[in-house]
Design goal:
Number of helices: 5
Distance between the termini: 41 Å
Helix content: 10-25%
Low-confidence stretches: 1-18, 21-30, 120-125, 202-206
Shape: globular
Strand content: 25-35%
Mean pLDDT: 79
Radius of gyration: 23 Å
Strand order of the largest sheet: 1-2-3-4
Number of strands: 22
Largest sheet: 4 strands, antiparallel
Oligomer: single chain
Length: 421
């Protein structure tokens, strides 16, 4: 490595990379003496003294910032004699790797295998927030993209055996990615929704994003097609491509729906009607969007409602029947779920939606009833005009505000998948 250090800047760069690499010896050994806080204080001071080394791949700065964030929540514990040490976490990971063959089968008989990225001491990506399988450029289904909450986008071209990062060149080492999707007909065209935070909390203190990214070459280069204004728009949650016209895009940005009719070159706002609170710490965000499979004019959107400050949570569900019009008209749907004459709202922090081409006029909604802690799933057979409660009860899947998902089989609407954290 030192042969590459032909001048002083590169020498300092190589020195810091050697220092970063040296930390993993005690990490893998589960050292009781390694002190995360002392180590990061030292490296923070180093970068303050050498700000010129905070840019560029060779400096190791991206590597360090991502490593620091990854371990920050893994070295703190109730055992104060081991605070600052990764030993407890590594012991747990070690047990998992030794015994993971015991955890491949679900209670329903299906089998799952971990395919990576699989580097416990070096893996810096935190939570996997989204997965996109490229079915257009690669009919073998071996090209997969994953987005993380703190480490950008990773790609594999061999079905998960090897992974590489394809967003570090953007200069944001802790880039959060919430959604990845691709053009259903054009190979190599990808869109990524940026924004990430701790445990999916929605307060402005924990989340950030740089905009909506587009790639024309399978993720090897990116353009920011909707840059964010600092302090105003900071997270994109979902991107939806109209399969009837792939130049028409929809994006959920904070509490707004943005629309583009030219592949992302320009955008306009077509929804801004979520309930507002007087306390600036309270805010609802749009979390899910679905299009009726046979009608591009019908869109459904769903919000969250984090309740740190105002108490009662009232997430929202909306629909429009003229999404392609210049000014779409929206109708609120969540007031219809309980079928109460006084239009009582469900007390829930978040809704998620699902549609299926097997029943193009149907739409499904799931939420966690905050008053009873029961999960509730409704189905509408007529594009949201009338609703039928299909399930209420407990699901052992960690389904709540932080992670809640719903998918319906595209060929069999009796097969429904719910998932959480």
């Amino acid at each position: 490595m030192l042969q590459r250090c032909s001048h002083m800047k590169t020498l300092r760069s190589c020195g810091i990379r050697l220092a970063l690499a040296a930390v993993f010896l005690p990490l893998f050994a589960g050292s009781q003496t390694f002190d995360y806080y002392a180590y990061t204080d030292s490296l923070d001071a180093w970068y303050q003294e050498h700000p010129e080394l905070t840019t560029g791949q060779e400096s190791g700065y991206m590597f360090y910032v991502r490593w620091k964030e990854f371990w920050r929540n893994r070295v703190y514990g109730s055992d104060t004699t081991r605070t600052g040490s990764p030993a407890l976490w590594l012991e747990a990971i070690g047990r998992y790797h030794d015994e993971r063959d015991n955890y491949t089968q679900t209670p329903f008989g299906s089998f799952w295998n971990q395919i990576g990225p699989d580097y416990p001491g070096e893996q810096l990506s935190g939570l996997v927030s989204c997965v996109f399988v490229d079915t257009v450029s690669d009919k073998t289904l071996n090209t997969i993209y994953i987005g993380s909450n703190t480490a950008g986008i990773w790609k594999t071209t061999n079905g998960g055996q090897d992974w590489f990062n394809i967003t570090d060149q953007l200069g944001y080492p802790n880039l959060g990615i919430r959604d990845i999707t691709g053009d259903p007909y054009e190979p190599g065209v990808l869109y990524a929704a940026s924004g990430g935070n701790y445990m999916d909390r929605m307060d402005l203190l924990h989340g950030y994003g740089i905009g909506i990214l587009k790639s024309w070459d399978g993720g090897y280069s990116w353009s920011n097609i909707l840059p964010f204004v600092p302090g105003f728009l900071n997270q994109t949650f979902r991107i939806l491509i109209d399969r009837h016209d792939t130049q028409r895009l929809y994006a959920l940005v904070d509490s707004y729906v943005f629309r583009s009719v030219d592949g992302g070159s320009s955008w306009d706002t077509i929804f801004d009607s979520l309930q507002r609170y007087t306390d600036p710490r309270d805010r609802k965000y749009l979390r899910d969007i679905e299009m009726a499979p046979s009608n591009p004019d019908v869109l459904y959107i769903a919000s969250d409602d984090w309740t740190d400050w105002h108490g009662t949570a009232v997430a929202e569900v909306w629909k429009t029947d003229n999404a392609t019009a210049e000014n779409p008209v929206w109708k609120r749907l969540d007031t219809l779920l309980l079928k109460r004459p006084d239009s009582v709202h469900m007390t829930t922090e978040r809704y998620e939606l699902a549609v299926s081409p097997a029943d193009p006029d149907a739409v499904w909604v799931i939420c966690n009833n905050k008053l009873t802690s029961k999960k509730m799933i409704w189905k509408s057979y007529d594009n949201g005009d009338n609703w039928h409660l299909r399930f209420t009860g407990w699901l052992d899947a960690g389904i709540d505000y932080h992670r809640i998902g719903l998918q319906v089989s595209p060929v069999d609407t009796g097969r429904i998948y719910c998932f959480g954290i």
